[in-house]
């Protein structure tokens, strides 16, 4: 199997993933998964698509992650891994879709409007 690549995005984070056959190593920006995401919750988020189709020890995954915060990066990576797994084996798509890993989360930060302190907050109104 040659290298399969996919892209995942969430908020401001972009994850480019390269999947090849191997023994389950995940390398993010030249660091291990445990080094990059010390939190076990974020490690769990990243591994969710692999656990769903029982492929944790089957593939080596190399990742380039840029932008966003750690939660957005973890969720962008989850989407990218799910997309790559579907490219490898299309039969896994229904299982991954059922868990919600194939859907790009469109929520992002609303822009700040001019003449206001924040996106929705307004300065105090004074009649006189």
What is shown here, in short?
The chain is 34% helix and 23% strand. It has 128 residues and is of the alpha+beta class.
Account of the protein in words:
The protein is of the alpha+beta class and 128 residues long. It has a single domain, classed as Ribosomal Protein S5, domain 2, CATH 3.30.230.10. 34% of the residues lie in helices and 23% in strands. It has 4 helices and 5 strands, in the order ββββααβαα. It has helices at residues 33-36, 40-52, 70-88, 93-99; strands spanning 4-10, 13-21, 26-28, 31-32, 59-66. Strands 1-2-5-3-4 form a 5-stranded mixed beta sheet. Helix 2 (40-52) runs parallel beside helix 3. It is elongated, with a radius of gyration of 18 Å. It starts with a strand and ends in a 29-residue tail after the last helix. The model has no long low-confidence stretch (mean pLDDT 93).
Strand fraction band?
15-25%
Mean pLDDT: 93
Q: Pick out the low-confidence regions.
A: none
Q: Return Rg in Å.
A: 18 Å
The total domain count is 1
Structural class: alpha+beta
Task: Assign the CATH class.
Answer: Alpha Beta
Return the CATH architecture.
2-Layer Sandwich
Number of helices: 4
List keywords for this structure.
single chain; 128 residues; alpha+beta; Ribosomal Protein S5, domain 2; five-stranded mixed β-sheet; 4 helices; 34% helix; 23% strand; elongated
Can you lay out the helices and strands and say which pair or pack?
Blueprint: E1 4-10, E2 13-21, E3 26-28, E4 31-32, H1 33-36, H2 40-52, E5 59-66, H3 70-88, H4 93-99
Helix pairs in contact: 2-3
């Amino acid at each position: 199997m040659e290298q399969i690549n996919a892209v995942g995005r969430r908020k401001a984070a972009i994850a480019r993933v390269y999947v090849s056959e191997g023994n389950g190593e995940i390398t993010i920006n030249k660091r291990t998964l445990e080094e990059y995401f010390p939190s076990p919750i974020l490690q769990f988020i990243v591994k969710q698509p692999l656990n769903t189709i029982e492929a944790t020890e089957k593939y080596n995954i190399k990742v380039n992650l840029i932008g966003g915060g750690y939660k957005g990066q973890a969720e962008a990576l989850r989407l990218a891994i799910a997309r790559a797994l579907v490219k490898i084996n299309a039969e896994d798509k229904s299982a991954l879709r059922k868990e919600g890993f194939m859907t790009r989360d469109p929520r992002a930060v609303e822009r700040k409007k001019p003449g206001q302190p924040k996106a929705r907050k307004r300065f105090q109104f004074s009649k006189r």
